[in-house]
Amino acid sequence: MMLQVAGVSEFIAEIYFSIIGIIFILVGLKALEDTQLETRVGTAVFWFLLALTFIFGPYIPHWISGIAIILIACLSAQGQVKLSKSDVPTPEESRENANRLGNKVFIPALGLAIFALVVATLLPALGANNAIGISATIALVIAFFVTKAKPNLAVKDGVRLMDSVGPTGILPQLLAALGAVFTVAGIGNIVSGSVSAIIPEGNRLAAVIAYCVGMALFTVIMGNGFAAFSVITVGIGIPFLIAQGANPVVVGALGLTAGYCGTLLTPMAANFNIMPAALLETKNKYMIIKAQVPVAITMLVVHVALMYFLAF
Fold first, then answer.
1. 80 close to 43: Cβ distance less than 8 angstroms
2. Which of 16, 29, 72, 228 could form a disulfide with 219 if both were Cys (CB 3.0 to 4.6 A apart)?
3. What are the Cα distances from residue 216, in Å, to 127, 169, 199, 224?
């Protein structure tokens, strides 16, 4: 029975990965159609290679996927991936639609969160990613009813938004993979050795500060709190806190959320900070990060205090 459920979960996941891959292909075709885009070939190749990994990743040799990742990294680093021309609504049309919909525009977004929670709770065997995919499908149907938009608009605007976000949209996946590589490579042990030379033995406050600040800083570098968690917990959390009697549950919970303080401060967390700026079309792509700095620092201080008083 468990194997059957796992098979269904993988099948559903492959459907959503393939849909994402098709969107990437459409972004590449959109670039090819823009004759005014100087890097249209490079941009198209980037999206086609990315689509290859999403659609055929499980069925092709790993070395082919690796070459594809290296090529898309080179294309991005060389500035070959650019935004192609899009048909966007005029400010007047946007204002008219905003006035017509009002707060109803938030119903699909709220539905996305609610249905993701419901699916993840009632069908945990499907996994969190599938829960998000299923809830997004339901939210899309709700959006059609609320906005009265034509179905092809979802494809058109989905392609436009993915194009606007650009290569930063795939940073979370790449950084999460990098975190796994760091863990296997023993970076946590290197961090532990470096910290042991700085923190006085038995100093709980210094250990808590090192762990929380380390989680935040490594998340700033990695752009992913989960990637930082494995490295910093192995390097600092276990030898300097848990080994001194700290509650592992408190250390783990507060350590991960301390990392989230770093998420608020880094452009590497593209899905949280850069992607919203692109979607909102802000003049400064770092505007969201600047607004979050005071909150992040304040919450990091709070985390240090909570861990010091609650973990021991």
1. yes
2. 228
3. 27, 21, 18, 10
d(CA 221, CA 226): 12
What pLDDT digit, counting tens, does each position of 123-138 carry? 888 777 788 889 999 9
Residues 219, 228: contact at Cβ < 8 Å? yes
What's the pLDDT at 71? Answer: 92
Q: Which of 207, 222, 223 is nearest to 273 (CA)?
A: 223
Comparing C-alpha atoms, which of 299, 276, 280 is closest to residue 289?
276
Global confidence as pTM:
0.72
Cα gap 153→75, rounded to integer Å:
29
The label of the residue with tokens 């590589």 reads: 181
- As a whole number of angstroms, the distance between CA 99 and CA 177 comes to 43
Q: Which two tokens stand for residue 242?
A: 């848990």
Are the beta carbons of 46 and 167 closer than 8 angstroms? Answer: yes
Query: What CA–CA distances, in Å, run from 59 to 4, 53, 126?
Result: 20, 9, 21
Structure confidence at residue 274 (pLDDT): 65
- The Cα–Cα gap between 175 and 223 comes to 7
Structure tokens at 302: 């709070």
Position 176 scores a pLDDT of 67
284: Cα separation from own chain's centroid? 20
CA 144 to chain centre: 26
